């Protein structure tokens, strides 16, 4: 598998960002403090956000599941 660099300033790969996300870094800011990614030119911050948005962070998924589905209830009544 070829390595995908998310942050070329610090040579941080997608795998590393995912690893930090699993360890509890749920925001680009927390990723930055974990591995410096995003603290130089800043052009990778959107990519980091995209990786976090894909569910790399378990806590974020739990929040998404908490959405109430009101339309289904209304149809059943
Ligand atoms: S590519 Fe990440 S700070 Fe520049």
UniProtKB/TrEMBL annotation:
InterPro entries: BFD-associated_ferredoxin (IPR052371), BFD-like_2Fe2S-bd_dom (IPR007419), BFD-like_2Fe2S-bd_dom_sf (IPR041854). Keywords: 2Fe-2S, Electron transport, Iron, Iron-sulfur, Metal-binding, Transport. The keyword Transport applies. The keyword rRNA processing does not apply. Residues 5-53 form the BFD-like [2Fe-2S]-binding domain. Gene3D superfamilies: BFD-like [2Fe-2S]-binding domain. GO terms for molecular function: 2 iron, 2 sulfur cluster binding; metal ion binding. It comes from the Bacteria. Belongs to the Bfd family. PANTHER family: BACTERIOFERRITIN-ASSOCIATED FERREDOXIN. This is Bacterioferritin-associated ferredoxin. It comes from Streptomyces chartreusis. The lineage of its organism: Bacteria, Bacillati, Actinomycetota, Actinomycetes, Kitasatosporales.
